[in-house]
Amino acid sequence: MTALTLSTAAASGLRADAIVVGVAKGAKGPVLAPGAEAVDQAFDGKLAALLETLGASGGEGEVSKLPSPTGLKAPLVLAVGLGAPADGDDTTTAADYTDEVLRTAAGTAARALTGAKKAVFALPVADAEAVGAIAEGALLGAYAFDAYKETGRGNKNASKGKAPLAEIAVLGAKPRDKAHKAAVARALAVTEELNRARDLVNTPPNDLDPEAFAAVATAAAKEHGIKVQVLDEKALAKGGYGGILGVGAGSAAGPRLVKLSYTHPDAEKHLAYIGKGITYDSGGISLKPAGHNETMKCDMAGAAAVFASVVAVARLGLAVNVTGWLALAENMPSGSATRPGDVLRMYSGKTVEVLNTDAEGRLVLADALAKASEEEPDAIVDVATLTGAMMVALGNRTFGINANDDAFRASIHETAEEAGEAAWPMPMPEHLRKGMDSPTADIANMGERMGGGLVAALFLREFVGEGITWAHLDIAGPAFNEGAPFGYTPKGGTGSGVRTLVRLAERTAAGDLG
Asked: Model-level pTM?
């Protein structure tokens, strides 16, 4: 893991491979952001002009590298764009930059410094929240998944790849300030668990079947004082979990339902988080075509997010009870697989006609929703890479929010924005429910094609206990980045949903469930 320290020293006197400064997009050219004063002095006050000569504008995500002049102990200066200041004034203050702007800038800089041992981050610091945002962004940007490469296994004869930035020093943050120390401790807990979720999403499915995922969750739970229960095939059959069993029926790797229970003696509220954990989704008998199944190791990203968030909540010691449910199965075609036309009896007792075996995530979630409802939590949130339709609606960087309560949906949206995750509230039109009527069973697992993401949410609602507040996060778009890295987001697994779930637990512990 990347090490992180706080420092009030002048940037000019610190030994490091690079110094990171912020540059804003001013009305007449790039403007240095607060924190860059000592570095600018080493350039005789001409750093902004030099950056403009090099073509820098201060646009968000822009990176410019310059050799350091005499007077700086670090050999490299990296200027990262912050975009236009909030007040639009060329004379900027630290308060002009939002936490997400700082988080993104720090992540961009950390990625650009891959291979470096130490970097000093001299970005604008207005308060403890800014310290936390810079730390979080830098730690998320300094991520790499190389477990399956020769260099990742310590092979000295392998060609050396560049390792992530090894050490981060945040300037302007006070090492003895309680608020600053708490912000960094939070950033470390959240980012370490979020990066663990990324690792799980990136792990090949031949090494992460439901049993292996359950073992990872069990080990982490024991390490952090979380109670864990794992239901295997026999226990699932005895309990009547027809949805999870039906999805996993075609695979040689049996399904699992993992329950993670974090409790706090001062807790007044109870949250239930449920994650879709399809460790590989071939589509089953309704087989996905070539070009649509190569990244389906990521179909357990919802379960990874729930797992990571519960562990992060435990590490933070939040005064709220949180139960995580990981609904794990591998969806494969075989002679024992569920067929289109089969009817499954779910844990709730409802029957479901399976019209498409590639609409499997809602089946495992349905069983987990019904089970979680028995404990009557104050709210349930499920997280799933559920539908391509949501990606069509919102793109690759924004997740959708459905809920059975408008106020709670608005609260989740606000929570996601606070956490720095792009999300958008979505409706659940009642007329779409009729499309799931089945002549054979209580409900079908498919409905109208148009509005498929909304149909899926309506299906899930059928399995939420009466009177329980519930929200559904469809993270199909942002869970796995197939494009180039950006900001603090790497290629591959992103950890989507983790920060929103942790922030929701923090708000709930503070008495603001919404």
From this structure: 0.96
